[in-house]
Write a structure and sequence with these properties.
- There is one protein chain.
- The protein has eight helices and no strands.
- The chain is an all-alpha fold.
- The chain folds into two domains: 96 residues, Orthogonal Bundle (Rna Polymerase Sigma Factor, Chain: A), CATH 1.10.1740; 56 residues, Arc Repressor Mutant, subunit A.
- The longest helix has 27 residues.
- The chain starts with 7 loop residues before the first helix and ends with a helix.
Length: 187
């Protein structure tokens, strides 16, 4: 059990070595963060698994810098993963709209105005995405679709994290410009 180790470095070493008790304790720490009611994850267990996979990768590469306790580090990784998953879910809900099994937008049947607004929003989104440069679509797919961190995108592109953020912001400006031109054409 992690509490039985002389220091936090032992907890990390036991986790890295695959000690079942330590892994169970780490899973418990992660589950406490993921199970928080504010996240409202449909599949919380998959988020727990994602966090454990990240921690395993960090352990295998020995990237835990020991600047804090291992428990604090685990909770931080879990919290940041939850934030990423939460943002992706909210983004998908806002952009893609809720869909039923047939691919249609789900809105109250007695609210034709909401249905019309949702359909217009999807049409605008399709228009904007079709006109964005390939670089922007690829960048957004990595960031919003796959949920990659700026660091991972930077590694793929061979540029700095700051440059990734600048490019994502420029793509957002392009998207807003395209949307504005679409909206002024229809007016």
């Amino acid at each position: 059990m992690p509490g039985n180790h002389e220091n936090e470095g032992d907890v990390f070493a036991a986790f890295r070595a695959g000690d079942p008790e330590t892994i169970a304790a780490v899973r418990g720490w992660v589950t406490q963060v993921v199970a928080h009611a504010a996240w409202r994850f449909g599949d919380a267990e998959s988020v727990v698994q994602d966090v454990l996979l990240k921690l395993l990768a960090i352990a295998r590469l020995d990237r835990f810098r020991r600047m804090s306790s291992f428990r604090t580090f685990v909770i931080s990784v879990a919290r940041n993963t939850c934030i990423d998953v939460y943002r992706r879910q909210r983004w998908r809900e806002r952009v893609e709209g809720r869909q039923d099994a047939g691919g249609g937008i789900v809105v109250a049947a007695d609210d034709p105005e909401a249905l019309h607004r949702a359909q217009e929003r999807r049409e605008l989104l399709r228009y904007v995405i079709q006109r964005l440069p390939d670089e922007c679509r690829r960048l957004w797919t990595w960031i919003y679709g796959e949920g990659l961190a700026a660091r991972n995108v930077a590694e793929r592109l061979g540029i700095s994290e700051t440059n990734v953020r600048v490019r994502a912001h420029r793509c957002l400006r392009k998207a807003r410009s395209i949307a504005a031109s679409f909206l002024t054409q229809g007016a």
